[in-house]
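User: Hello, can you help with two protein structures?

Assistant: Certainly.
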Amino acid sequence: MTTLTPDAPAPQTPASRSSVPRSSALRNGWILTQRELLHWVRQPALPIFGLLFSIMLLLMFGFLFGGAIEVPGGGDYITFLLPGMFTLTMLFGLEGTMLAMSTDAAKGITDRFRSMPIHSSAVALGRSGADMASSILNLAVLLGGGLLIGWRITTDIGSALLAVLLLLWLRFALLWIGIFLGLVFRGPGATVAVQVLIWPIGFLSNVFVAPETMPGWLGAVAEWNPISATATATRQLFGNPTGITSGLLPDAALGMAVGWPLLITLVFLPLSARAYRRLRR
């Protein structure tokens, strides 16, 4: 007499996971987003430190150095600085994204997710969802802090909302760089290298000073920095001084603030997907 046993379920493959309905991918991504948010609730030191660091930079440059810096074209330095600081905060989020992805990959957590019957894009969706939620909170706190120290929005509510959307659009693009780097480079040295490189990229822009106060070649580099494009566009939309009296950015800032993040996303989103598929293969 033979005993019938049920067939074992077929193992999940990348192809079978990618065939999961898109609605399931969004649902899986939302569950993983909640996982990341719960980590921050239970261990709030890291996000709080990141927020305090941004506030410290704002106060330091605004009040310690602001009196010695003149804005080309006129205007108060605080109102010039604030949109740049909002933009720089979007850049600083890149290293947090990379560190989270790198840590999960190194500990085998990402491999465990890959073995589960979830959509192949769920891990990246979860990471991006959590990072965008964190960025919205950080930006809201900085906007409130700016208003407390004298920064003002002098345009209509529609322009101000568009400025906020441009900041979050830049953050969305940069997080794909972080996801890619976190999947490809998982050693602690790589994270430190990215942390070091972020500073020159952020400072080689118009966040703190206008490019026309720099040497000619350096100012040209700063004008083509994606951070400068978003900073200038948000200054225009908030009705703040741009610190620019001539050059490329005054007329093209809005288009560049849309185009640079789009280009970054088109390059690094597919690279992130490929790196995830090739992980530990």
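That covers the first. Now for the second protein you mentioned:
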Amino acid sequence: MTCLHMSLNKMVFFICVLFIILSVGVLCKPYFSSSNYRISCIDILHSIVYKDRPECEGCTKSWSWMQSSPVAKCAFKKFEKPDASVMLNRSWVVFAGDSQTRLGMLSMLKLVEEPERVRIVKEHLKKLHTDYSTNIDSIGMKLDFKWKPYARRLTKLMLEFKKNEKYPDIIVMGAGLWDMLYETNASDYDVSLRSLRNSLQDLNSKDGKVPHLFWLAMPKLISSKMTPEEKRHKLTEPRRSMYDNKVNASKILNKFGGPLLKLDIHYLSELCGPQCTKDGVHYDDVVYDIAVQIMLNAVLIESTHKPPF
């Protein structure tokens, strides 16, 4: 990523930051001087509203950030394809996890690829439990999806990155639904998360690059819409809450001193409402589109507030 490969050329990085600020308009100069700017804006990235919430499945839904004073000062931006292409130029982005994370990857793909290509990929991956990788040649971007539905498999992937001393610019990971459905032991999930947290320590590649790390949380679960019976019994909101508490207790999230910034799919899906899901687990594209927009804004905030020298 031009704006994230800080070790390649410090001057290029500095110029790129200025270009992004001026052309995309995500951050406003008057707020750069505030020492609390980065933290406060990161904290309110999820301050969104759905402009319309038609009570029907499949209806088009639009959204925006709230217009309160704190949110307005952060000047969050909805990235369109031109802006996203500049932001993600020469980047390597990895989504790793279950089907929720795959939906996040598809939302990212929509920002940089042609619609027909996205449709084909979406249909191809819909029923498959497999990895996916593509290169967006026009911007030199590599986008990967790693099928790692269990938390313990995420640890193995991070250790592979660490062994090679080469990391993506952005890593979005998330797991829990399969742990709930097939492993059924919350204590084992807790152990896996703590192991994952340990594997994320000291992520420094040979070129000095440190990846931006995100955790894609589990969605609002609506058991009444699920089939078969096993899902309705095991994928419940009380159990999701218990597993989510394990994520918090592991201190893997930035909020608790860990390395991962949470993309709160539960909040975004609950706010969208039950009409936004057909099966009680997977939600309409807009939920994951918002998560990707939050992620990109977070990356820009983090990048522009890390010393370039």
